[in-house]
Amino acid sequence: xxxxxGEILVIAGPILLYLWNKARAPQQRKKYGIxxxxxxxxxxxxxxxxxxxxxxxxxxxxxxxxxKSVIAIRLRRWIPIAFMSLAxxxxxxxxxxxxxxxxxxxxxxxxxxxxxxxYLFVEHPVVGNGxxxxxxxxxxxxxxxxxxxxxxDAHGVIQKIGAEQGALGLIAFGxxxxxxxxxxxxxxxxxxxxxxxRVTSQFAMLL
Length: 207
Hints:
Layout: H1 2-22, H2 26-45, H3 49-66, H4 70-75, H5 79-98, H6 101-123, H7 134-138, H8 142-147, H9 157-188, H10 195-206
Helix pairs in contact: 1-2, 1-3, 1-10, 6-9, 9-10
């Protein structure tokens, strides 16, 4: 499916950006640059809503970190044009997809799965219902059988953890994410570590 392709591409993008930054030979940088353009263009052409959001967030992070670099200064005049072009495409994409039956049903399915996850969380809010129990439990719900039918897991890691591991699982996951980002953020602050470690940490945060 296009959503799985988009997930792979938004991970491949930062890796290629890191390799491009590490490369010193002009020919090598050119090859990585072409690959980066192809990867992100393909990611946007999947028209996956999640992929578009991730690409936008990655773009914001990259601009904040490297806005004072020589390349960013050279590309600054093209940013308004690129932003307006992407914004126009995004508006058309949203309007067209809102009226598309497959997208509407997909959105409804996501809300149904979120409602089920919330129901399971309320049933056992502290420790949850057990790891791997979401689908075996909700498959017997009337709304699941009538509105979804196919084998579908919880939509989103937060919903899944909340339903299966409760508040303790959500707290543990939140602490892990916080530690991960705080670690890479501290390593990305200028003057605290070497330049190579700082750049590596910044690209790692994109993943």
